[in-house]
Write a structure and sequence with these properties.
Strand order of the largest sheet: 1-2
Order of helices and strands: HHHHHHHHHEEHH
Helix content: 55-70%
Number of strands: 2
Strand content: under 5%
Shape: globular
Radius of gyration: 20 Å
């Protein structure tokens, strides 16, 4: 067994993580409603960009304070595995129609194929393991995690944010006791992540394109400004809400054709 201790580290950013998790949950719900039900409303996806930076920061805080990384990782893995079929069904990432699953072998193949587009719990798990390896100075394992995220992810375990998401979690952790330094590095990285550049070639102009991901920077004030709402959440709230809201979205999508005939 291995354990993470806080040693001399202290969280000097916003420690009101339960309130932050509520904001992230609401943002994620709006984002997924937009993705699953109302793709024509791009503003819903922009509002949803607040969720991941907050979850990434909360995981970094959790990595500082948790007494047992194995238990933390176990929770993430279990919820990742449970949520996976609901995630791909609700958000239109299923490898092939679920109606074609007519045997246990087909169900297993469907599930394995679905992992090519993996839910956020897998991303958080990869981030936690990478942070643990840095914390414990197990740099060979760090190199292994980099290889997994960089090379395996794009071909099999493709998470929504890829290596960018894992690096964001690492940045939050590394500078968690240095607010100004953290803000500079994180803001710069998120701005770079959300912008696309075209270098001048052959007299062409320099172009900057703002992607939807750029609006994730709006989460930074929530992360860096101290708050004290005194809201307390059970640690299982997010874990249980995640698959529950995906199941609700899928059920609503399933019922929509029947509801249309009721009018």
């Amino acid at each position: 067994m291995f354990y993470v201790t806080t040693q001399s580290r202290s969280v000097r950013l916003n420690q009101d993580t339960d309130f932050l998790k509520l904001i992230a949950i609401a943002s994620m719900l709006v984002d997924h409603i937009g993705a699953a039900l109302l793709p024509q409303y791009g503003g819903l996806r922009i509002a949803g960009r607040l969720a991941f930076p907050i979850f990434a920061y909360c995981l970094a805080v959790g990595a500082v304070y948790t007494r047992s990384v194995p238990k933390y990782a176990q929770r993430l893995l279990i919820m990742a595995l449970v949520s996976q079929p609901l995630y791909v069904l609700a958000l239109n990432h299923a490898p092939f129609p679920i109606a074609q699953v007519d045997s246990a072998a087909a169900a297993l193949r469907w599930y394995v194929d679905s992992l090519r587009t993996s839910n956020i719990m897998f991303e958080l798990l990869l981030g936690l393991l990478t942070i643990w390896s840095i914390k414990e100075r197990k740099y060979l394992f760090t190199a292994f995690m980099v290889a997994v995220v960089w090379h395996v992810g794009p071909h099999f375990l493709m998470t929504s944010y890829g290596w960018n998401g894992v690096l964001l979690m690492v940045l939050f952790y590394v500078f968690i006791d240095q607010p100004l330094t953290s803000f500079v590095w994180v803001a710069a990285f998120m701005a770079w992540w959300g912008l696309s550049y075209t270098l001048p070639i052959g007299g062409q102009s320099f172009n900057v394109t703002v992607s939807t991901q750029f609006w994730a920077v709006l989460a930074l004030p929530l992360i860096y400004l101290p708050m004290n709402t005194r809201i307390k959440l059970n640690k299982w709230v997010f874990y249980l809400f995640y698959p529950a809201h995906l199941a609700a979205l899928y059920a609503f999508k399933f019922l929509m054709p029947f509801m249309a005939h009721w009018d």
